Amino acid sequence: MSRSRLLGQSVIQRRGVLALGGGVVGGVLLGRPPVDGDAVQARVTSRPVPRSTPGLVRSRDAITHAQTGDVTPTSGVLWARGTAPGQLQVRLRSGSRVIGTRVGPAGTADTDFTARVSLAGLEPGRDYEADLWFAGSDGTESDPTHVSFTTPSDTPARTTFAWSGDTCGQGYGISPDAGGLLGYGAVADLRPDVFIHCGDNIYADEPITDTMVEVDGSVWRNVVTEHVQRPAQTLAEFRGRYRYVLLDENVRRLHATTPVIAQWDDHETTNNWYPGEVLTDDTTTFRYTDERRVDVLARMARQAFQEHMPIGEAHLLGRGSTGFAEKGLYRKVPRGAHLDVFCLDQRTFRGANYAGTTEGEPALLGEEQTEWLIREVTASRATWKVISADQPIGLAPRRQQDLDGYGNGDHGAPRGREHELARILSAFKAAGVRNVVWITADVHFTAAHRFDPADATYADFDPFWEFISGPLAACAFGTKEPDRTFGATQLYVKGNTVDHRRAPRPDQTYVGWGEIDADGRLRVELRDAAGTVLWSVDLDPVDPVTPPA
């Protein structure tokens, strides 16, 4: 296999035109001042933060980052952010062998100094390491950063995944006193083969201020940067939210060794948004002064999300004329013989939330994405088909303003958006699809739901499971009951049990864990960031059924 095929484009030799041996996270390009003031301006009220403070990387190291994403048996994405204009350089290694070096695209102000390289022709089941750095037009280079990842095997083999969501919500950001965003550290400690972030990567609509005073009088102290102090209403503010999360040491440790599959939900834009919405003071908790048209906010939010997430170029370029996926962000990420991950976009195509129970309204996925999901899951030959949704499919809302998902709480025959879910589940049954599991975060508690047609009002589907885990770095919320239309039974649930919000704590920070053994048996664990396994189940795969001719 040629080096050029492996790296997806032309390869230069180690002693080629550019000097090698730099990387991205080491700092700014030589001779250029930092463009981004996030790390310089980060502050904690009333006292300085020493350089060794847990949870925060200080100085120039804090404003550059590298990560991997959408890694399949033969492909993957390397992503980096610099601090000034520069050309991304990548050197790929496997073991002691240097495979080659690629000159990637430029990171410029137009991309918030981010750039990515898509790798093709990788070998399944192999460990890889990469050095990433930026080269300036004046010949200067940044210092090196290193990331590692393992491609999944294309033959039956053990594989693991973790999932969660909900980062920096309710005004709780990076607190050096608390050790930073500990949920990310808990995931890093598990060393999964891949981490699936189920959405709410940021809370663009919720300000992060210097301090939060708890009911008991204790004080939570946040690191604060320029662009997190009000609801995001400019592209710079949306971008600044992502840069803020990347300041955290736990996040950086996870990204250095674990590929990410990233999807978005509502808070990347604003709470419970839908296309065409116009925000008012009655519908928002925090005041929007410069921009209230959600379609405008969502365009900026989508650009910032895609700039800062390691999503493949082919996907981004395949759906839009501007270099961004102007519509959906849904995709399939093959993870080997035993696992396919289907990453949904339940925001872009939805109808208005108040129409969630009416007939004839657009649902959550839309026609194109619904057809794609049915087609791709039906065609999947992986043992387990894990559908990563950005919100649960089986919960009943507590209030009218919670009509944001499929469930409407009447427990009867499908209405409104529920027709879309009924269509999907029935199509899976008709095609003989088995071993479908749904995972999500969103609701800030952890739960296990089993859907059984024997307990359902609508029964044209085969039994399946949904597992919920989150938040990763936000408040835990109170729990909700399942909607019974599709026969959901809540076998486990844990969330906040007091009548007020509390600062994030390890025993209320929730992470899901999946482990598939070589024989295809799936173990699912609902865990907290303290390392406790709260609940678990072992699922044996079921052979697919051949539908009648």
UniProtKB/TrEMBL annotation:
Domain Phospholipase D N-terminal, residue spans: 67-128
InterPro entries: Metallo-depent_PP-like, PhoD-like_MPP, PhoD-like_sf, PhoD_N, Phospholipid_Metab_Enz
Gene3D superfamilies, A to Z: PhoD-like phosphatase
PhoD-like phosphatase metallophosphatase domain span: 161-528
Superkingdom in the source lineage: Bacteria
One Pfam family per UniProt: PhoD
Designated name of the protein: Alkaline phosphatase
Gene source species: Nocardioides zeae
